[in-house]
Amino acid sequence: MSLHAINEDLKKLLESLPFFIQEHLKNHGNQEKLIEIVMDLGRRPEARFLTGPEYLSQKIISWQDLDYITKRINKFNNENRAGIERTLHRISCIRNRQFLINGLTCRVGRAVFGTICVIRDLLECGESILILGKPGIGKTTIIREIARVISDEMEKRVIIIDTSNEIGGDSDIPHSGIGRARRMQVEKAELQHETMLQAVENHMPEVIVIDEIGTELEALAVRTIAEKGVQLVGTTHGNCLENLIKNPVLVNLIGGIQYVTLSDDEAKRRGTQKSILERKFYPTFQTIIEINAQNSWTIHEDVKNSIDLLLQGNFTIVQTRRFYLTEKTIISYNPVQTTSIFQNLLDLQSQNFLRSKVNTWKNLINPKYFIVDNLKIKNLQIYVYSISSNLIKEIITKIGANLSVTNDIRKASLIIALKRHIQQNSKLNQISKQYKIPIYHVSQNNIYQIFKILKEII
To answer: What terms describe the molecular function in GO for this protein (predicted)?
Structure first.
């Protein structure tokens, strides 16, 4: 894949540094691989490249050097981060007990065109995507380019929730690297979840881009947004899908897990222990990308299936995509044994986040009570109004019916709606009559009524 850095603005960062550091880096032959510059009081300045670190001078950093830099950049926020106007660079500070700055980390920000060509097909599917990777591996660069591609090339309404200003830059005018996407800045990191919900309520986005989902409130807000039919693109820290399963705060992003005790007959039928782990509900993100290296990504195109296989301790097929500067992309599929992962999770069953009651409706929609495998029906598209689409998807998955949920009412075979809301929506009733789409009512948004409706449909 051919990568082209756009508007790197490294010069603006170098101009903010002391002269002796500027001169060394201006003439350095490895500028394009520079990741960050580290300056600590009483130590030699250090540059960190993709190839490794190196000292920039024999001179040690003084109070005057640190003061020289802080006067040439924006003010530090409550998270001890600052930036340079109209660039993507980020400067973070370390303070002593007197709250004086005694260390600086200057991370080089780059907008890179072409980084996501390898997953363009996943973007066009319109499903929510979560990107996993360790710090500094390039997650922010990837979602910035995703925002640009979706807004510019796919012409969708995109809102970026920019908590630390790393996606759109540290100024009121966002960096050109985000394309036509709009950017909402977050006043405080702990208010990120509120800004996410405001974006949906006030600006009618089709896609929301979020960097570093890390708290329980943010995970809850993400799930709420997904149920409103908005596509999500987010990042979080973690090396692989198994890390999310073991994370009590973020596990709900992939459907949550619960500790279930089976009857003797059911355990025998499944060939498992009586105490097992199961997924609670439909995952918020349908696709997960693990950034193993800058040119090697692991793709989970069906997160629901991957989670179920991991919890069952079965083999799962992992898709790996590797791309090179020769414009060559290699996609391979490899089987992975997951038994050890499952066993590790059973060892964690005493933790509170794995303790929950057996799902009260599980037996109701168990395939042995409701068999549709032999039914010869076409794939029916369901349009959902005022009801959780994820709840319906979960029921459809459990019963194995040939049904799917659509956001386009013109493609729908039928409409399932909350009765009191559909009566007040004359426009939806008009569209139903125009396209001859039947409407099924439920009086309450609960699993029993929805299951009954789906049973009638089939």
So the answer is: ATP binding
